[in-house]
Design a protein that fits this description.
786 residues; mainly beta; flat; calcium; repeat; cell junction; cell adhesion; Cadherin-12
Length: 786
């Protein structure tokens, strides 16, 4: 701190010895610069003359010292124009960056001061504008001019490592000068001014293992053969100092954690030369017998170890694999052990690295050897059968108690063991192990018996062994052969002599030892039949062959042919089957047409296509007849009353859509409502009137006050009319009368007049009735036009 204050006082002394003298100038003329400020002199190496310009004042760049710690405002420089005669008639103004807040100017003398301390790293320079004006009229005497005040740098920032602390790695056993990494420190001071930003690097902690380049900051190894197994992590302290490392410079430090990465420079080593293991003789094949391990000081893939059994004694009984997680050697059982056969095994195991580095071959062989001795332990074993499985044969229907075979089991620790079976069809001698039948066997029910025989240890019943015994039941010839299926045989009427019309085969429920063998023949061998015979093909099939031609269904439709079938067993069995042969009609190529008896009576020469054509014609005629009858019936149903003069509203089907209630020309509906137009003696025109049965209808008086009586009379009149039509008709009983104040309410009556209706009120009902109002409004306009 004292060093910094001394430097500031020295710079302030330089400023006070050199001040900015005013320029001598006259308006409208060129003038020399008569002022060289101390800051300009400091920058250019001394005072120098300025060029003549066409303006009243000119000045160089001003400088202000950063981090000024004085109590008074820091003097920056002086502004002066040759128009200023010293009579206080000129006023100086200042504007721009920091004018009034950071920098201030004396309006009479033109002296510029900095009001507070400045930091070059925050803002390196300030651009301002100055102007001289008349103090009374405030009129500019000179054009406004721009100048710069630059903040002069001092060494107030130490170098900094922006990315620290650092982490690096270098392979172990590296030679001297191996590159590790590069560090860089930054200094916020001005690198163009002095040595404030000139940084020099050095190591404060980490020697003699590493070194650093003082200019570039590159870190390298400085000691050869550094071994990771001895020391893996190094912490290096790097210093960066400005001012070129000179006394009084500021410094910054950072830490670098350097790790030595592993290389394969160590071989695996067994912790002892002999390993003793014990294994029970009952151990399963593939199970782990024991574990051994060779230690490697390296890590990662450089510490991976491969184990191998050296060929020799015991090498064929065991195998060894490597556990990838802990690099242990797992000894596995390769073959079953037997204490009674061999009680101990000895062999050697070799451990070697999987990944070798050729740079370190001179360190010696990267492998090690150890001896493994394995002792087999005796265990109480269950009995062992002489075979892994047994197979026996026995004929079906063998008498009960017949011995079919034997099994033997031996206790290796003692002697023979008792046995027992697990099937009710057989019995076993528990001492000798002989198996005998317990029931009569039937191959057709169960052709094979799978039983289990259990041997138990005498002194330890918990220890048992089980073996599978398969008993095959052999077949004896007890079923005769029969036809394989019910055949549907036919012979064509056009069949020729010697033609095979059917191929047959046979089946047998017995199971012959060497495949099935059947023979076929007619019941009376050697006797010639006149219709059919059996021909044996010798391959378990036979053919039905015709002995004549000219078969006719009219003469005989069905023939029965017996067939004798024999098997090839030791005791030959036979059976007789019967084939039913039908005589059928066939096409020219022998295809079946029909075998029915009705086909005999069909006309000769008519083919199937002709018969179908005849049937189609018959169907068409029937359809035409049905349509004709339907049309005739429809015509009979038409109404007889077609006259338009009939005033009654009959229900008539005329397939025409009327015009609605506005259609007054098709039918005068008003007649049904006006009692004045009712005519007397109106009889039905569709039937002949009967004078005695047609009473005279009373005329309704228009002055009648009792409308109910009028309607009742009309109702009785129609109910008593015996000449009513047989079809539905509409009878009108309504009567409104005349002289009503409200006038007639009938829509039928209203169509008689030509009264105009005003539909303008529909427009007042809203948008929903807009379309309806348009229709009736258009209709009213048409009537008015007409």
């Amino acid at each position: 701190m004292l060093r910094r204050n001394c430097l500031l006082l020295f710079l302030c002394f330089l400023f006070e010895q050199s001040s900015c003298a005013p320029f001598q100038s006259r308006p409208g003329q060129e003038w020399p610069h008569s002022q060289t400020g101390p800051l300009a002199a400091g920058r250019n190496g001394g005072s120098r003359g300025f060029q003549r310009v066409k303006r009243g004042w000119v000045w160089n760049q001003f400088f202000v010292l950063e981090e000024y710690m004085g109590s008074d405002p820091q003097y920056v420089g002086k502004l002066h124009t040759d128009l200023d005669k010293g009579d206080s008639a000129v006023k100086y103004t200042l504007s721009g960056d920091g004018a009034g807040t950071i920098f201030t100017i004396d309006q009479i003398t033109g002296d510029i001061h900095a009001l507070r301390s400045l930091d070059r790293e925050v803002k390196p320079y300030y651009t301002l504008r100055a102007q001289a004006v008349d103090i009374e009229t405030n009129r500019p005497l000179e054009p406004e001019s721009e100048f710069v005040i630059k903040v002069q740098d001092i060494n107030d920032n130490e170098p900094k490592f922006l990315e620290g602390p650092y982490t690096a790695s270098v392979p172990e056993m590296s030679p001297v000068g191996t590159y590790v990494m590069k560090v860089t420190a930054t200094d916020a001071d001005d690198p163009t001014y002095g040595n404030s930003a000139r940084v020099v690097y050095s190591i404060l902690h980490g020697q003699p293992y590493f070194s650093v380049d003082p200019k570039t900051g590159v870190i390298r190894t400085a000691l050869p053969n550094m071994d990771r197994e001895m020391k893996e992590l190094y912490q290096v302290l790097i210093q960066a100092k400005d001012m070129g490392g000179q006394l009084g410079g500021l410094a910054g430090t950072t830490t670098i954690n350097i790790t030595l990465s592993d290389v394969n420079d160590n071989p695996p080593r067994f912790s002892k030369s002999i390993f003793h293991l014990r294994v029970p003789e009952s151990s399963a094949v593939g199970s782990a017998v024991g574990r051994i391990k060779a230690h490697d000081l390296d890590i990662g893939k450089n510490a991976e170890v491969e184990y191998n059994i050296v060929p020799g004694d015991g090498g064929a009984m065991f195998d060894i694999t490597t556990n990838e997680h802990n690099q242990e050697g797992i000894i596995m059982l390769k073959k079953p052990l037997d204490y009674e056969t061999k009680k101990a095994y000895t062999f050697k195991v070799e451990a070697s690295n999987a990944h070798l580095d050729p740079r370190f071959h001179n360190f010696g062989p990267f492998k090690d050897t150890a001896t493994v001795k394995i002792n087999v332990l005796d265990v109480d074993e269950p009995p062992v059968f002489s075979k892994p499985s047994y197979a026996m044969d026995v004929y079906e229907d063998t008498p009960q108690g017949t011995i079919i075979g034997a099994v033997t089991a031996q206790d290796l620790d003692a002697g023979n063991s008792p046995v027992s079976d697990l099937d009710s069809f057989f019995d076993i001698d528990p001492v000798r192990g002989t198996i005998s039948t317990n029931e009569l066997l039937d191959r057709e029910s169960i052709a094979q018996h799978n039983i289990s025989v259990v041997a138990t240890k005498v002194n330890n019943p918990v220890l048992t062994s089980k073996v599978a015994v398969t008993v095959h039941v052999l077949d004896i010839n007890e079923f005769p052969p029969e036809l394989a299926m019910p055949y549907e045989t036919f012979v064509c009427e056009s069949a020729k002599v010697g033609q095979v019309i059917q191929v047959i085969s046979a089946r047998d429920q017995d199971l012959p030892q060497a495949g099935q063998k059947f023979s076929f023949k007619s019941p009376q061998e050697g006797v010639k039949t006149k219709n059919f015979t059996i021909r044996d093909f010798g391959n378990n099939t036979a053919g039905v062959m015709t002995l004549r031609g000219g078969f006719k269904r009219r003469s005989q439709e069905i023939y029965h042919l017996p067939v004798v079938i024999e098997d090839g067993g030791l005791q030959t069995l036979s059976s007789t089957g019967t084939l039913t042969i039908r005589v059928c009609g066939c096409d020219t190529d022998g295809s079946l047409l029909t075998c029915s008896a009705e086909a005999i009576f069909l006309p000769v020469g008519l083919s199937t296509g002709a018969l179908i054509a005849i049937l189609v014609c018959i169907v068409i005629l029937l359809v035409i007849v049905v349509l004709y009858v339907g049309v005739r019936r429809q015509k009979k149903k038409e109404t007889l009353m077609t006259s338009k003069e009939d005033i009654r509203d009959n229900v008539i089907h005329y397939d025409d859509e009327g015009g609605g209630e506005e259609d007054t020309h098709a039918f005068d509906m008003g007649t049904l409502r006006n009692p004045k137009v009712i005519k007397e003696n109106m009889f039905r025109r569709d039937v002949k009137p009967e004078l005695g049965l047609c009473p005279r209808r009373p005329v309704a008086s228009q002055n009648s006050a009792d409308i109910s009586n009028f309607i009742s009379l009309r109702l009785q009149e129609h109910e008593g009319d015996t000449s009513a039509p047989p079809y539905d008709s509409l009878a009108t009983y309504a009567y409104e009368g005349e002289g009503s104040v409200a006038e007639s309410l009938s829509s039928i009556e209203s169509v008689k007049g030509e009264t105009e209706e005003d539909y303008d009120y529909l427009n007042e009902w809203g948008p929903r009735f807009k379309t309806l109002a348009g229709i009736f409004g258009e209709r009213s306009e048409k009537k008015i036009t007409a």
